[in-house]
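Progress note, project year one: complex with benzoyl coenzyme A.
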Amino acid sequence: MTAAANYGELIPNNVDLASDRRLQRALESWHPKFLNWWRLRGPEYFQDNEVYLRTATSVDRKGWAQFDRVKMPDYRWGIFLAEAHAHKTISFGEHRGDPVWHDVPGEYRAALRRLIVTQGDTEPASVEQQRLLAASAPSLLDMRNLFQVNVEEGRHLWAMVYLLMAYFGRDGREEAEQLLVRQSGNIDKPRILGAFNEKTPEWLSFFMFTFFTDRDGKFQLGALAESAFDPLARSCQFMLTEEAHHMYVGESGLSRVVQRACDIMRDKKTDDVRRFGGIDLPTLQRYINFHFSVSEDLFGAERSTNAANYFTSGLKGRYQESRLKDDHQLQDEPYTVLRIENGDIVECEVSALSVVNERLRDDYIADCQRGVDRWNKIIIACGIDFSFSLPHRAFNRHIGEFADINATPTGKIIDQIEWEKRSPEWLPSDRDREYVRSLMVQVTEPGAFAPWIAPPRIGINDQPVGFRYVCI
Ligand code: BYC
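Model obtained:
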């Protein structure tokens, strides 16, 4: 396995596709369907304009990205797996210590297919959710970042389709077709996971999505990158490098929104940020509450036999499994989780194996908190007395232990009447959403930015902030 990507073929790859004519033909027949989907359900605008995009050239650490002006439909979507390691062994579960699998064991076929399909389904879903955003991009630089995220999600779809077609025969080919048939928000054929049927109607939601929901991707891909099924592990390993950029787009985008709000508060000596065209901090907190809670649901139920089985059989590990210091089988390991007992939320100790999803959610929450801390530093640096916080994990949940109760952002259980009365304080109201939407105007002058967001400090790939990132 070489690190370099072969761009000499119709489908760029580092999996020696040329040596497998059957697979090559299957992928080549899916290719025009993908392009058709991209044209119809991908970005609605600027498909024929050149965009300053990066493309993977090699999967090693040093030189994987090459920047160039490309029209999106000409982007070289391809199949890249992280480098293989000889003598790699399974790092967890009942097969721990055995050599990793280069094929799918019959007994795990259905479970692996399901995991790959669920992962694959999120990728085109997010492109569909974001398809109208270019019409209100706050700058060319931001528009380019959106398109970069979109083409990379398209590549992640290719990564999962490759696995389905290479390892799951006819079933896999059918699943690959369905990935282009289900549609975000479609009542009859919705995407599989809840958050991927929500709307991303404006840029604040886009930044929140790339911060909170792409971060679920980081942890899920991190857990799948540990898989005993090596082609899945290596696909996810490489996808993680792209995912990092998506979260950066979210974190830096939100930092700039916070910066703008704080600049207004400081310079105009007011809390009335809206009067000056910014997004006020309490509104940002309500958006955080919404996007964080919806993304928490993506980890599944706390107690999950699915997750325990995935773990025991070596299909899906914990985040950075190999770095953890325990028996990697969780036979007698305890783990503390929250549950509802007699109407209260209490801590209790359970078997770690039964709550693998919750452990991943814990890792996720800690990572989200680090981002929130960084935004709070911006507020402190401006001398403003306000701080963001993540809501309690029981807040606004629709999956798992807390799905049937209502809780405040501080974790107090309340009844339905109080929830209905008070939830507009905690979640974006129609008025908030209307206000945020009213700010969204397209800015296409190179180096200019919409007034609700501060410019970034640096451009992309050492280009100036005022570079023409999209040739309009
Ligand atoms: N919505 O034992 P349970 C990304 C279902 S994001 C709807 O709780 P399990 C990206 C579940 O399917 C990363 N249904 O859950 C980000 C099951 O159904 P059945 C995506 C849900 O199976 C931004 C039932 O409830 N990757 O990459 O342990 C942009 C009980 O299941 C939901 C993955 O998720 C939900 N939220 O875990 C682009 C990795 N949650 O069996 C991309 C692959 C649960 O009763 N997926 N259910 O019919 C998995 O590992 C697991 O499927 C889940 C659920 C973690 C999602």
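The longest strand covers residues 334-341.
The mean pLDDT is 95.
No further modelling is planned for this target in the current period.
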